[in-house]
Design goal:
Layout lengths: L10 H25 L4 H23 L4 H4 L3 H14 L7 H25 L4 H23 L12 H16 L4 H22 L15
Length: 215
């Protein structure tokens, strides 16, 4: 997604991270459709919606042009990922590999979403929420379409990891720190928290006030 920030020296890296994050999320959507034994049309739709869902919602909320409509690479990347998933055995994409790739995409995408919101003049706290939306909404849409509990309805540390990356990104901007330092650190922090949750099966505590054994 194009981000209007004055850090031209790392602009190519931003573009690569963006497409990589989109590809990872698109792959998760395509593989879920494959698990459900759906057609290629459904697989491609899941890939596209998962890959661009969060960024699309963010752009609509901040009044920016929807990024993938103007970017000639995003839709082909999503459809290409769907083709790869369609023609390869599902065992090639075992759960640990996809989970760790998704964790990397989550951190990078949350940072990119926050940075874009800040570039469009969004205040810091709403910009953090835009980062969370960018990183998580595509997966939520995917899960709802598949008829399974979304990441919002599970205690695992997922949204929290995206929020950590977003907070660090916005905090660094508020302090006037260099993007070239803040963005990688923020993305790695979100990846690290999500990775810890995957490895140690960490989750948030659930609400139990007033609950009984029969509830």
């Amino acid at each position: 997604m194009p981000i209007s920030v004055p850090t031209a020296e790392i602009a190519p890296l931003i573009g690569l991270l963006d497409l990589a994050g989109i590809a990872v999320f698109a792959l998760s959507g395509a593989l879920l459709a494959g698990q459900l034994r759906q057609t290629f049309v459904t697989m491609a739709f899941f890939a596209l919606v998962t890959g661009v869902g969060g960024g699309s919602v963010r752009d609509l909320l901040i009044g920016a042009p929807v990024f993938w409509v103007r970017d000639p690479w995003v839709a082909p990347v999503c459809l290409g990922v769907a083709l790869v998933a369609w023609f390869t055995p599902h065992r090639w994409w075992d759960r640990p590999v996809l989970e760790w790739a998704d964790a990397a995409g989550l951190g990078a995408y949350a940072v990119l979403g926050t940075a874009k919101a800040l570039a469009f003049g969004v205040p810091h706290v709403p910009a953090v929420l835009m980062g969370v939306i960018t990183g998580c909404v595509g997966g939520i849409i995917r899960d709802v379409l598949a008829g399974r509990p979304s990441i919002l309805m599970r205690p695992e540390l997922y949204v929290t990891a995206g929020a950590l990356s977003s907070v660090l990104c916005a905090g660094g901007a508020a302090l006037g720190l260099a993007n070239a330092i803040v963005w990688p650190v923020a993305a790695l922090a979100g990846f690290g928290l999500r990775g810890a949750a995957i490895y140690w099966r960490l989750g948030l505590p659930v609400y139990t006030v007033g609950a009984t054994e029969t509830d």
